[in-house]
Amino acid sequence: MSKQNTDTDVAFISALAELLNKNDLTELSVKREYGEDDSLEVRVVKQANVVTVAAAQAPVTAAAAPAAAAAPAAPVSAPAASEDPAQHPGAVTSPMVGTVYLAAEPGAAPFVTLGAQVAEGQTLLIIEAMKTMNHIPAPRAGTVKRILVEDGHPVEFGAPLMIIE
């Protein structure tokens, strides 16, 4: 994919997100064909004033099934309806797409709990991406005020994971 396609795709996805908000839609899914072996599939989903965008760049084959985008994780602690957790100054966002794990292994104690004091660099959770376990460190010291994801659920790039104040 060329730089021109990338810039065009970013503008296209932004336009889809704007269209979603302007028309009070909750979901929009589009497939864009560039050629015989090149396409872009985009799914934009809006939940509780948060817009999640999932895009997959993949070659198209006759037997290929449409790419399914993962649903955003449900919040563990209920946020206020008018508040966007991603805009909170203490938000810790996902650096990648993957599956969230709040503990090192099933049945183990979670890395952090609600109200816990964390130090900068302390592991908050793990995101599994492409069979690699990525430890997500606390960007700053503080108190865990909200945990916005559930163990074993998928997350998107940029999705808010926790609020640390």
From TrEMBL:
Pfam families: Biotin_lipoyl. Residues 89-165 form the Lipoyl-binding domain. CDD domains: biotinyl_domain. It comes from the Bacteria. Pathway: Lipid metabolism; fatty acid biosynthesis. Coiled coil: none annotated. The keyword Lipid biosynthesis applies. Keywords: Biotin, Fatty acid biosynthesis, Fatty acid metabolism, Lipid biosynthesis, Lipid metabolism. This protein is a component of the acetyl coenzyme A carboxylase complex; first, biotin carboxylase catalyzes the carboxylation of the carrier protein and then the transcarboxylase transfers the carboxyl group to form malonyl-CoA. This is Biotin carboxyl carrier protein of acetyl-CoA carboxylase. It comes from Rhodobacter calidifons.
